[in-house]
């Protein structure tokens, strides 16, 4: 990936994460990335294409983190909770879904696929569909609660619930 494209994606992700998608214009992204507007449009044909690429790169980093340890329910949960502690401003994917609520919109569809990807990822680690869905529910709940509660407390209670479930 070119350095300018990487700068655009990094700046866009930070700006969108801190301010939302609709409140940030293309001009602000190219200025923050210190690249020309023409360069931005050479890499991305539209703001929506830029948003989709930001989400794609974020998803890649997230799943790389989940894959770093042996894929057990506890290690997947721990990796997710590590992610929450380093990204304490909520879920960028759910924000995208809120700002692009039309069900046939590409961004909305990408978010739905991302959320389902977690379930399939866990299933791919050898867990049943029901176990995978339950873990996704716990992790999504942890994500939501981390927006309004201390992430250390959210981490502790989420891991406690998972350990309890694993004992049964």
TrEMBL record:
SUPFAM superfamilies: Homeodomain-like, Tetracyclin repressor-like, C-terminal domain. The keyword Metal-binding does not apply. Gene3D superfamilies: Tetracycline Repressor, domain 2. Coiled coil: none annotated. The keyword Zinc does not apply. It comes from the Bacteria. Residues 25-44 bind DNA. InterPro entries: Homeodomain-like_sf, HTH-type_TetR-like_transc_reg, HTH_TetR, Tet_transcr_reg_TetR-rel_C_sf. Keywords: DNA-binding. Residues 2-62 form the HTH tetR-type domain. Pfam families: TetR_N. This is TetR/AcrR family transcriptional regulator. It comes from Alkalicoccobacillus gibsonii.
